Amino acid sequence: MNEKIKAIFFDRDGTLIHEKPGVYLSDPAKVRPYKSVPTALKLLQQAGYHFFIVSNQSGIGRGYFTEKEVNAVHARLQKLLRPAVFEDIVFCPHAPNEACSCRKPQPKLGLQLIKKYHIDPKCSFMIGDKKADVEFGQALGVGTVLVTTANGKNHLKKYPDLRPNKIASNLLNAARFIVKQEK
Ligand SMILES: [Mg+2]
Ligand SMILES: [Zn+2]
After folding, report:
1. pLDDT tens digit string along 85-118?
2. What DSSP line would sit under 119-179, residue for residue?
3. How far apart are CA 130 and CA 26, in angstroms?
4. DSSP secondary structure of 98-124
5. 161 is a catalytic site residue
């Protein structure tokens, strides 16, 4: 009963699904997972990981779309990526200037998940395409993988002090790295 689980925290935009620069996704019909995602999730699931998404959705705070629309996007994403299951999808709805306590890289949303689902940070990972994702993972004490999809390449250049445990060209290579740590 007290057994802890190991988890992968995924960023959403630019990590699991295509992100268009400057476009705030609110239409479920426009959700497009990267090609390597189903295989990556299968690999990680076989290795015993539980899946969570932690996302900054400042489009809500900026007034571009509603929480309801974000939930519709997530329902679509869950459906597209079946049989993989995301046990929880959490997001910060605030704009950066709202000075909230839940926007990545702040660890609050991750800490809540760790507590609620009995996650062992030492056996878990965060995968994302931004500096904020790496710092979020580091604050949680999980392993970090920066994928060079979407913003990844730029952020590596822009923030040379960024030190993820691994830099991967896509989610499948991130998954391969994580699974290899087991052996
Ligand atoms: Mg992202
Ligand atoms: Zn927030």
Report:
1. 999 999 999 999 999 999 999 999 999 999 999 9
2. B-GGG-EEEESSHHHHHHHHHHT-EEEEE-TTTHHHHHHH-TT---SEEESSHHHHHHHHH
3. 20
4. G--S-STTS-HHHHHHHHHHTB-GGG-
5. no
7-99+106-181 has which fold? Rossmann fold (3.40.50)
Q: What is the separation, in whole angstroms, between the first and last Cα of the chain?
A: 26
Give catalytic status of residue 13 as yes or no. Answer: yes
- Give the C-alpha separation, 143 to 165, whole Å: 6
pLDDT of residue 22: 84
Which ligand is the nearest neighbour of the Cα of 103?
2
Catalytic residue among 13, 88, 120, 129: 13
What ranges do the domains of the chain cover?
Answer: 7-99+106-181
At 180, the amino acid letter reads K
pLDDT at 2 over 80: no
Q: Do residues 41 and 81 lie in contact, with contact meaning Cβ atoms separated by under 8 Å?
A: yes
